């Protein structure tokens, strides 16, 4: 069943576990409406840039994983579980795990080291402020805003209901798609700018598995657009190549 067609069904809800608060810093801006497409920095060159192969695309790191195999089976909706509940629970887990990874490497993600929210040699994401103006923010600021914004949504009973008898709102699919897109950007920045630190911690099997699970889940429930994973030809997202590599290896499906 399509996640986007399933809203509005009546459902019996049970309470999820207690929420955790990874205490992101306060957000001054919130992403209103749709986020803008990635902005190339500098402006698109005529010839594609020569990009050295990223470490995360090299062996043995590219297929380092906690568990070998295809992720399809673990993203499938379990029997008797409501699809909204399943998506909510997984979003919560992706957010929590990614936030913990970021917490570990955050001392390296500083305003000086990461003055923009980079995700590829020619790609830096921009943030839309409350006046709907595109802003280049240092990566740690951008990521703090994203994580604080998501935490606020997760804590909002009207957006992510946890109590029995409370239904998910009509716009829940759109909200989680928006969350997904921002989480993807955080993954993309960590791969692009901090993969050597992940390697230093010997966490690449764990991080790859988390990201492959995230991609697989996002495709299964239509939360992830291919164009957001790959970016534009003049400003590709670094992890777009990882997505391709994992598809060729059979770790991910189309
Ligand atoms: Zn950084």
UniProtKB/TrEMBL annotation:
Tell me the keywords, alphabetical order.
Metal-binding, Zinc
Q: Where does Zn(2+) bind?
A: 109, 114, 189, 194
| Compositionally biased tracts (Pro residues) | 34-49
* Start and end residues of each stretch annotated as Disordered: 1-49
Please list the residue ranges that the record marks as compositionally biased, kind Polar residues.
1-15, 22-31
This protein is called what? Maintenance of ploidy protein mob2
Q: Which organism is it from?
A: Gymnopilus dilepis
